[in-house]
């Protein structure tokens, strides 16, 4: 087994309100599924400002913090947990650079956006952030331990 003896890595990936508004939820989910990651949790949520301030607390001193929280609170988001080998680093690669103009074509941002303040998706930047973000957005029972190798239950 490819993952034998290892705890698979998890990342917190989120479609931001502009991604939801533009109908890119399926596109973003599709890319993670196709790459081979396993979906462990997903929910749509109109996050409150305090919740978003907690999520982005490391950026609270930045000049764009207020605008960032307002943007993230402007509509619903789709929060997800994706699991698999190197999910955090590879997930960030799949998203592209923070500034979409620096994102290579083929990445989500490089294919779908041009504004840093409207960059359609979020991905955890380290395993520690992923763990913090997953526990901020999901209750333990919302994370589903299904095994994609077991096919019996589909029949
Ligand atoms: P994210 O957390 O959303 O995945 O983004 P990131 O790690 O790539 O970038 P980070 O530096 O953590 O910034 C978080 C989000 O804030 C917005 N931003 N605006 N106006 C600006 O200069 C500016 N810089 C960052 C972006 O939406 C960025 O994703």
UniProtKB/TrEMBL annotation:
CDD domains the UniProt entry points to: NDPk_I
Keywords: ATP-binding, Kinase, Nucleotide-binding, Signal, Transferase
Superkingdom of the organism of origin: Eukaryota
Active site (catalytic residues): 122
NCBIfam families: PRK00668.1
Family as reported in the entry's similarity comment: Belongs to the NDK family.
Name used for this protein in its record: Nucleoside diphosphate kinase
